[in-house]
Design brief:
27 helices, 0% strand, mainly alpha, 493 residues, single chain
C-alpha cells in the first residue's frame, strides 16, 4: 500500500511538472539574457538559478545556459573548454524536446542551440559537424516559420543560416553541396536590417543587441565594406553602455575600418570590473592599435594578451609586434629577445602567425617600410605617404622590401581613392612579387580586381581576380583565393 501510494505520488508530481513545462521569456529571463550579451556571466547565472527555483520547467533556461557556453567560448577561444562543453548541445536539445510542443519557442530554441554550436564548431575547426548542425537548425526554423510566420526570432536565425551558407569559403563548398544547402549573403543581411527596424515595436525588442552584433560582424567579415564605419558605430550607440560586448564591437569595427584613434579610445574604456568575463582579444586589438600610433605603452597591452589568452591565434604575431615596437625604439636587445619569443612560442596555424614566424627568422625589416606599414594599418595615410617621401624602389636592397615599397604605395593610393596611381603601383608589385612566397603580389591583384569591380569594368576585374588565384604557394593563399573567387561570383564569372 505504501509503495502504491509512493508510486501514485511520484506519478502526480511528474504529471504536474510535465503539465507546467513551458517557455516563458519573462522579465527575469530577459535580464539574464541581457547580462549574457553584456558578458556578465555570473550575474546571468544568478538570475538563471532564481528562474530554476521559480519555474523549474521553463525551457528558456536551457537556451540561456547554452548562450553562456556560446559567448564564453567565443571570448576565450579555449579549445579545452570547447572539448569539455560540446556534449552539452545534445543534452540540451533532448531536454527541450520534452517541453511544450505548442509554443513557438519549442522548435526555435532547439534550432538556436544547433546554430550556436555550428558557429562554435566552425571556429574550432570541426567543419563537417558545423555544417550538419546548421542544416538541422535550418530545418527546424523553416518548420517553425510555417507554424508561426509572425514569430520574429525565426527571422533572425534564418537570416544567419542564409549568411552562413552564402559565404562558405570556396574550399569548403563541398560540405554545403553534400548537405544540399544554399544561401544568399545579401538576402540574409537585408533580413537582419529589416528585423532591426521591426524589433523596437515588438515584444522581442530585447534581441536588438544580438542583431547589432551580427550586423557588425557580417559587414566587416563578409561584405568587407569600406565605408560602413558611421553606420555600424551608429548601431552600436544603441547598445547597453555597460556591455563588454559593445566595447569589443566598437574596437573591432573601428580597427577594421582604419579608425585607429577611436579604437584606442573605445578599448581603453573597457570595463575593468571582475563581474565581466575576460576577453583577451580586446588587448590584442588595443596593442595593435597602439603600435599603429606608436604609443609608448604598446608592449603592456600585447603582453597582457599573450599572458591571458588560452587559444592559439596571434601569439607569435603579438610577440613579433612587441619586438617591432622595440626595434622602432632602437632597443636592439629587447627586439632580439621578443623576436626569439615569436619563433619559440605559440603556433603557426593562423596566417598571421605563419607570417610572424617567417618574419622573425628573416633579416630585420627596413625601418621606413615598417613605420609605413603601421601608419597604413592605423589609417594614418598622410603619415604613411610622408614616410616614403624622397625614396624610390632603388632605395631598398632586398627584393622583399622593393615589393613592399610598391605594394604599400598601391594600398595608400587605393585608400585615398587615387585609383590610377593605385593600379600602377599594384601592377609593379605584381611584376616583382608574383614568383615569391610573399602575399603582396596576389593581394595586389585582388585589390585591382576590387577597383575594377567597383567601376563596373567586370572584364578587367575578372582578369585580376584570376591572376590572384593563379599565384600559388604564398602567404594567405586560402584567404586571397576565397576572396577572389567571391569577387568572380559577384560579377557572374
Amino acid at each position: 500500500m505504501i509503495k502504491k501510494y509512493l508510486f501514485v505520488s511520484l506519478l502526480c508530481l511528474f504529471s504536474c511538472v510535465s503539465a507546467h513545462a513551458n517557455f516563458i521569456f519573462n522579465a527575469n529571463c530577459v535580464e539574464a539574457y541581457k547580462d549574457i550579451l553584456a558578458l556578465r556571466m555570473n550575474d546571468a547565472r544568478a538570475l538563471i538559478k532564481k528562474e530554476k527555483q521559480t519555474n523549474p520547467a521553463n525551457g528558456i533556461v536551457v537556451l540561456l545556459e547554452n548562450y553562456i557556453d556560446y559567448f564564453s567560448l567565443l571570448a576565450s577561444e579555449n579549445k579545452n573548454d570547447y572539448e569539455r562543453l560540446k556534449d552539452n548541445k545534445s543534452m540540451r536539445v533532448d531536454a527541450l524536446e520534452e517541453n511544450d510542443k505548442n509554443s513557438p519557442w519549442y522548435l526555435f530554441s532547439q534550432a538556436e542551440i544547433y546554430l550556436q554550436w555550428s558557429f562554435l564548431k566552425a571556429k574550432f575547426g570541426d567543419y563537417m559537424s558545423s555544417g550538419s548542425d546548421a542544416k538541422s537548425a535550418n530545418s527546424l526554423l523553416k518548420d517553425n516559420s510555417k507554424k508561426y510566420p509572425d514569430f520574429l526570432p525565426n527571422k533572425k536565425s534564418l537570416a544567419l543560416v542564409n549568411i552562413i551558407f552564402g559565404n562558405i569559403p570556396a574550399n569548403f563548398r563541398w560540405i554545403a553541396g553534400m548537405l544540399g544547402m544554399k544561401g544568399n549573403v545579401q538576402y540574409g543581411i537585408n533580413q537582419l536590417v529589416e528585423l532591426k527596424k521591426q524589433l523596437p515595436r515588438s515584444a522581442y525588442n530585447f534581441y536588438d543587441d544580438e542583431i547589432i552584433w551580427f550586423l557588425c560582424v557580417t559587414d566587416i567579415n563578409v561584405l568587407h565594406s569600406k565605408n560602413s564605419y558611421e553606420t555600424l558605430i551608429g548601431y552600436l550607440a544603441g547598445m547597453d553602455n555597460n556591455s563588454m560586448l559593445k566595447v569589443y564591437l566598437q574596437g573591432y569595427v573601428s580597427s577594421k575600418t582604419a579608425h585607429n584613434d577611436e579604437t584606442i579610445k573605445y578599448l581603453d574604456a573597457a570595463p575593468k570590473s571582475g563581474q565581466y568575463i575576460a576577453v583577451p582579444p580586446i588587448y590584442y586589438m588595443l596593442g595593435c592599435a597602439k603600435l599603429n600610433r606608436m604609443d609608448g605603452d604598446t608592449p603592456a597591452a600585447l603582453a597582457r594578451y599573450v599572458n591571458d589568452y588560452k587559444g592559439t591565434a596571434f601569439i607569435k604575431d603579438a610577440y613579433l609586434k612587441i619586438a617591432y615596437f622595440y626595434l622602432l625604439q632602437n632597443d636592439s636587445e629587447k627586439y632580439e629577445e621578443y623576436r626569439r619569443l615569436a619563433r619559440s612560442r605559440g603556433n603557426a596555424i593562423d596566417g598571421k602567425d605563419k607570417i610572424a614566424l617567417r618574419e622573425a627568422s628573416e633579416p630585420k625589416p627596413d625601418i621606413d617600410l615598417l613605420k609605413t606599414r603601421f601608419y597604413f594599418d592605423g589609417g594614418y595615410y598622410s603619415k604613411a605617404t610622408a614616410q616614403l617621401a624622397g625614396k624610390d624602389v632603388n632605395s631598398f636592397k632586398l627584393t622583399r622590401d622593393k615589393i613592399q615599397y610598391y605594394y604599400y604605395l598601391g594600398r595608400i593610393n587605393d585608400k585615398i581613392n587615387k585609383n590610377a596611381d593605385a593600379v600602377s603601383y599594384y601592377q609593379k608589385a605584381i611584376a616583382l612579387g608574383k614568383e615569391t612566397s610573399y602575399y603582396y603580389a596576389a593581394n595586389a591583384a585582388l585589390m585591382i580586381g576590387n577597383i575594377y569591380e567597383e567601376v563596373k569594368d567586370n572584364a578587367k576585374a575578372a582578369n585580376y581576380y584570376h591572376q590572384a588565384i593563379d599565384m600559388k604557394a604564398h602567404d594567405y593563399q586560402t584567404d586571397i583565393d576565397n576572396d577572389a573567387k567571391a569577387g568572380l561570383k559577384r560579377i557572374g564569372q
